[in-house]
Amino acid sequence: VTDILGPFLEATVRTATPLALAALGETLVERSGVINIGLEGVIIAGAFGALVGASAAGVIAGFAAGATAGIAIALLFALFAVALGADQIISGTAITLFALGLTGTLYRALYGTAGASLTTPTLSPVAIPGLSLLPGIGRALFYQPPVTYATYAVVGLGWWWLYRTHAGLALRAAGENPAAATAAGVSVGRVRTVAIAVGGALGGLAGATLVLAQAGTFAEGMSAGRGFIAIAVVALGRWHPLGVALAALLFGAASALQFLFQAAGWALPYQIFLALPYVLTLVALAGAAGRSGAPAALGRIEEQGA
Amino acid sequence: MAPAGTGRGIRQLPPSLRSIVVAAGVAATLLALLAAALHAGGYDAGRALTALWTGSFGSSYALTSATLVRATPLVLCGLAVALAFRAGVLNIGAEGQLLVGAAAAAALAVARGERAGSGTLVAALAAGALAGALWAGIAAFLRRRFRVLEVISTIMLNFVAGYLVAYLVRGPLQEPLRIYPQTVSIAPAARLAPLIPGTRLHWGVLLAVTASVVLWWLLRSTAAGFRVRAAGAGPSAATVAGQIDVGRVTARAFLASGALAGLAGAVEVLGVTYALYENLSPGYGYTAIAVALLARLHPLGVLASGTLFGALEAGAAAMQRDAGVPSVVVTAVEALLILIILAVTRPRPRSTRASDSASEAAQGPVGATPLP
Question: Could you tell me the maximum CA-CA distance found in chain B, to the nearest angstrom?
Fold first, then answer.
């Protein structure tokens, strides 16, 4: 049984990593009272940035470029959603379409149509001494690319920052009651812009992970809806870093199911497995309905007394 | 953003002149954005823009066989998005609804085989609309019952619809030789006939025009249309003052929106491709968002903006052929256009917004509501 389960658990953690990164960033953004539907655009920008950075100067540069590209797209969103007070959902949708079109254009302009054979250097898995030898989950959790370990750190840091620091308190206040936060001296607009930028960095890293730790190449539209899935992950994880990490693992498992069933020799149309994470998103959102945890001011356009 | 003075200046013009000024402004902005993007990408902007023109409006063949053929699904999907947005439903799922509409129409027409007649054509169009409505119905149900954000649910359903078509054309609907991932060709009797002989333009374009006029009339002059506008403009006020069941009204508008997008898919299969295959739509459902927003959600405006984007996409194909410019550049330009529209029509303080909508109601036939 472990012959089948082992690869399944490894694949679960591997596919959960970019989802968790993006969803943790979106958790901060939503906790500040903004919903960034443009996360999908942030991820694809991060993936493309990673391609450019990594082909120029290696894996580390790739991750840095991915995060930078993510921040750039996220700040464009902040310009509309925060500074101009435009509708967050429509701005986010437009940002996503813009990023998909822009990366597609730049990709073909820079690498031509023969880009399909393009490969980037990738991160190899690194074993954590001792822990990776734990029975069952040891290899799945502790024989992964370093970016997965960084994600573990982001979960802990995010929790500590959100619940144990003054800045985290100000962020949550901006999301729960912006008027009261303003009265208490918090600059709601600035808090939200910073949250969106941090969310952009994590979303960009998520895109970079797709290229530099998984695919080893870039493809147009390779984000494949992960930004929207990550938003569902945030709701399922009830806007709490630990919950979000667990929810990301659940979605990772759904994507990894195809390995399990292939190994078990089940003959089902493979499109069912490909569609599964999207269907699971719908089920998760329906299941998360009516439960508390959503920031009270989420998605509302603020009348910021001009 | 246009300074406030400019906006007020344009508003003082008579409506007909005003729309010409706005249209010219939009076209100029689009061309400027595109030229800048081309220049930045290191392409020969002059040559590319020439190709854009010859491929879209440059000849009667380009106009009928490229621009209007592409405008047809864009107008139908644009109407779908406009209707939903008017009702306060952010249906981003026109793409998926189009795909299931195409699948249903193709399944029905293929099943009839050589026995197909004009009755098959009508039934296939109806099946496409029904399938689109059912697909939107999933998101409408999730929204009403579980308050699931329809932006996310409809996008998820777009992916599921894509995989569904991928499965169908490799499974139950695949052509009998099982070589190509597509259905057999639909019998000529069940196709939408050419409108002008010698071109690719089919009767579907008249369907799109009719749908625009009917939707405009419905929204403007009927009680149902009023309820949709009231529900979208202010759900709580509509409930309290108008005794409108907002949940039911928006759910029905959502279904009707899906039906329009599904119809677009059926029209595409029966009038253009004559078979179901993957990548049948080059993202018509997503472009439709820009089409609807550019038209300020006005059904007759969708007819104009749909034609503009049809020309843009037809021209982009020519640009890729003649000047080697990747046609996806148009997606980025369209999205930028949405953002510019958002920036210039962002919500204003309440006092001015009330007078704005009152004056627009007096000028425009439908009292174009500001963007949600």
Answer: 67
Q: Nearest C-alpha of chain B: how many angstroms from A285? A: 6
How far from B79 is each of A207, B74, B85, CA to CA, in Å?
A: 34, 8, 10
Tell me which residue of B15, B75, B73 sits closest to B299, measured CA to CA: B75
Of the partner residues B145, B293, B332, the one whose CB lies closest to the CB of residue A102:
B332
Contact B129, B266 (CB under 8 A): yes
List of chain A residues whose C-beta atoms are within 8 Å of the C-beta of residue B166:
271
Angle at B286 between CA B127 and CA B294, to 5 degrees: 110
Indicate the helix (H) or strand (E) that contains B157. Answer: helix B150-168
- Using an 8 Å CB-CB cutoff, list chain A residues near B286: 97
**Cβ B159–A109 below 8 Å, yes or no?**
no
- Nearby residues of B272 by Cβ (< 8 Å), 6 or more positions away: B69, B200, B202, B204
CA-CA distance, B39 to A204, in Å (whole number)? Answer: 27
Q: In angstroms, rounded to a whole number, what is the distance separating the alpha carbons of residues B292 and B295? A: 5
Choose among B128, B253, B270: nearest CA to B186: B270
CB A14 within 8 A of CB A144: yes
Backbone angles phi, psi at B202, to 5 degrees: -120, 175
Strand, coil or helix: B370: coil
Q: Give the pLDDT confidence of A86-124 residue by residue, as tens digits.
A: 888 888 988 998 999 889 888 888 887 655 567 888 888
Residue B319 distance to chain A (closest CA, Å): 13
The interface pTM score, or ipTM, of the predicted complex is 0.82
> What is the phi-psi region of residue B73: left when phi exceeds 0, alpha when psi lies from -120 to 50, beta otherwise?
alpha
pLDDT digits (tens, 9 = 90+) for B37-58: 788 777 888 888 899 899 999 8
Q: If contacts are CB pairs under 8 Å, which of residues 10-39 in chain A contact chain B?
A: 37
Residue B254 amino acid letter = F
3-state SS, residue B178: coil
- In sign, the C-alpha dihedral spanning A21, A26, A29, A31 is negative
Q: Would you tell me which residues 26-85 of chain B have a C-beta closer than 8 angstroms to some C-beta of chain A? A: 37, 41-43
Looking only at the bridges linking them, the beta strands covering A143-144 and A126-127 are antiparallel
Distance, CA of B2 to chain centre: 27
Count Cβ atoms within 10 A of the Cβ of residue B46 and give its class: 0-12 exposed, 13-18 middle, 19 or more buried: exposed
**Using an 8 Å Cβ cutoff, are B288 and B74 in contact?**
yes
> A152 burial class (0-12, 13-18, 19+ CB within 10 angstroms)?
middle
Please tell me which residue of chain B has the smallest CA distance to A105: B329
Q: A205 and A63 in contact (C-beta within 8 Å)?
A: yes
Q: How far apart are the C-alpha atoms of A151 and B330, rounded to whole Å?
A: 36
From chain B, pick out residues whose CB is under 8 angstroms from the CB of A280. none
Q: How far apart are CA B285 and CA B84, in angstroms?
A: 13
What are A127's two structure tokens?
Answer: 């074993």
Predicted model pTM: 0.85
